[in-house]
Amino acid sequence: MKTSTFFLRLAGLVTALTLVNATVFAQDTDVLDIAGERVSLADFEHVFGKNNRDSVYTVEALDEYMQLFINFKLKVREAEALGMDTAEAFKKELAGYRTQLARPYLVDTELLDALVAEAFERKNREVRASHILVSVDAKGSPADTLKAWNRIQGLRSRVAAGEDFETVARSKGGSEDPSVASNGGDLGWFTAFQMVYPFECAAFNTEVGDVSEVVRTRFGYHILKVAGKRKAHGEVQVAHIMVRMPSDAPQDQVANAEGRIQEVLRLLRSGEDFDALALKYSEDPSTAAKGGLLPWFGTGKMVEPFEEAAFSLEQVGDLAGPVRTNYGFHVLKLIDKKELPSFEDSQRELTKKVRRDSRAEITKTSFVRGLQAEYGAKVSTRHRDALVRAASNLDSLFHAGHPLTGVKSSELSRTLFNVAGQAHTVGDFVEWVNASRVRNLDLPSSDKVKQEIDRYLETMLLAHEDTQLERKHSDFRLLMEEYHDGILLFELTDQNVWSRAVKDTAGLVAYHEAHPEDFMWDDRLDVAIYTCEDADIAKKVRKALRKSGDVETLRRELIAERPLALRAETGMFSQGENEWADRAFTALSDRALVADKKGMLMLETSEGGSQIILVEVKAQLAPTPKALDECRGQAIAAYQDHLEQAWIEELRMKYPHDINREALYSLVRK
């Protein structure tokens, strides 16, 4: 069990209700006082509504939930009284959860939502574009960056003057994308998240037939020419049969391969099984044994001729081919298609992708700028320049054994910037940067120091904002309280109830003996069920039963030559545990089973073809108490409930609690 979800599990015991926020009380009114801890009406309403989403408030539902809530809070209060919230393991676990939970609050959520909406709109479209690349490292020197910039501008000028885009891309000094030799810069069709974000934006924002402005990505500088835009295809799943053939094969080899795939297609159209033909003829070893089945794919995942053929298929089972690709000839069969999901269905997944994508850095940067404005955090130009001067005197700044030094002692106590009234000095920065992992070590020293000052400011702003989350966001505060209480509750309940019930053998035995009526067998039948391959075997079984009752000897005699001729199952079954025992129960209640001369009760039925089922009813057993070994799991669960109830009664006596029912019932009012 995850400790952080324990409270939700507890609350789930209550009948679902719906949230109706109609109160006449102020939201800071206390609704509960439990051992000196006050719970506001607003907090209770939040927790109640979170765990009871689908019904209306009623007095009965509020009373029932309040009792569960009190039980929960009493256990947490006891854990705190025992000092469990001060244990290092607890604090470490809670801190880990807090780090994860805080992340969504430390970005520009409005911008995040806008980027998710933009991604959804783009996922519904596809763009075809060609590009020219001039490579330059993201951490390249200013000289290298300027050289690359001038080159890409020159290439764009040639295209703008009327030269063919592909010709420019292939020309000497043209595109540095290695694939240009084979594709002339054509990237095919793509949609959102298939290219780096700046490139994607340029593609979607450039009109068909136009050439984009220069775009910078981590690969270098690009210009794009957009060849087309269309509605997105969605996803498709196909099976294929492939006859392998190199792209540069001589004509006689091509003709041979094409003839073989045409024969496969003829066999398919005459009604032969696709899976069988794939296994026999397909030269794709990864799919032949699976009937040629390929994983689901969308635009840009397969070579273009294959992809176009797959998406052209309309009805499940339709065939396409022969299709020629660089790998050979293919015949395709449509397995299924998926339409594009709605925004509601895709929002969660798109949000995850945006958070993992380079877009996430945009939301973080925007958020930090907002914090800088909110707190008036501005780096002192004078003290920044002093740090730059100190850095310029060092040859290998921030490399191993070369920290930032040489800052005048009089500068160290100077304030570099303030965050919410907290001064961060030049000395604080020097200490921080020398302990940090510095990025972009190839930059000039002055640029490195400016970069690290900006990173230090960002780090301090985010660190301060992290301390303000509970104050600024009540939902975050309540979520942290839920995790705090859930971890404590799990640990203490495990000690007092769950593990105790398993380990306390004497207590479990005593509880089982004191409550025999809670652990009873229902009516049972002691039966032997014989599955006979045919009527002849059934006859031999009946004879063996009447003569000696020994069917096992007969079964063993048959195993060598006919291993499935006779199967036997014995046991004691209550109703609902075995199909054949259930039929015997029904026959007994209908008095359809009559004892023979030896008192044997037998139910006989045929079950498909010549198979015969014989059910021998050896005895009817009235309800009897279960031995502990026969109901250990059930007894442990009941003992746990007993221990928990006794514990709750003890806590209710130990810690006073008072409900403000007038405030509580105000939630019912319209």
TL;DR of this structure?
By secondary structure, the protein is α+β, with helices and mostly antiparallel strands. The two termini are 39 Å apart.
Features of this protein?
26 helices; Chitinase A, domain 3; four-stranded antiparallel β-sheet; 670 residues; 17% strand
How does the SSE layout of this entry go?
Elements: H1 6-11, E1 30-34, E2 37-40, H2 41-51, H3 59-81, H4 88-102, H5 109-123, E3 125-135, H6 142-160, H7 165-170, H8 180-183, E4 186-190, H9 197-205, E5 215-217, E6 220-231, E7 235-244, H10 251-269, H11 274-281, H12 304-312, E8 319-325, E9 328-338, H13 343-356, H14 359-375, H15 381-392, H16 409-412, E10 415-419, E11 422-425, H17 426-435, H18 445-467, H19 469-472, H20 474-503, H21 505-514, E12 524-532, H22 535-547, H23 552-559, E13 566-574, H24 579-589, E14 601-606, E15 612-621, H25 632-654, E16 657-659, H26 661-665
Structural features, described:
It is a single chain. With about 675 residues, the chain is α+β, with helices and mostly antiparallel strands. It has 26 helices and 16 strands. A four-stranded antiparallel beta sheet has the order 4-3-6-5. Helix 3 packs across helix 20 (about 475-505). It is flat and about 110 Å long.
End-to-end Cα distance, whole Å, is 39 Å
Q: Percent of residues in helical segments? A: 40-55%
Low-confidence stretches: 1-24
CATH class of the domain at 125-231, named Alpha Beta
Number of strands: 16
- Strand proportion, as a percent range, falls in 15-25%
Shape: flat
Spatially, the strands of the biggest sheet line up as 4-3-6-5
CATH architecture of the domain at 125-231: Roll
Helix run count: 26
Mean pLDDT: 89
Using the CA coordinates, give the radius of gyration. 38 Å
Q: Major sheet: size, sense and barrel closure?
A: 4 strands, antiparallel
Q: What is the CATH T-level topology of the domain at 125-231?
A: Chitinase A, domain 3
Helix/strand-derived class? Answer: alpha+beta
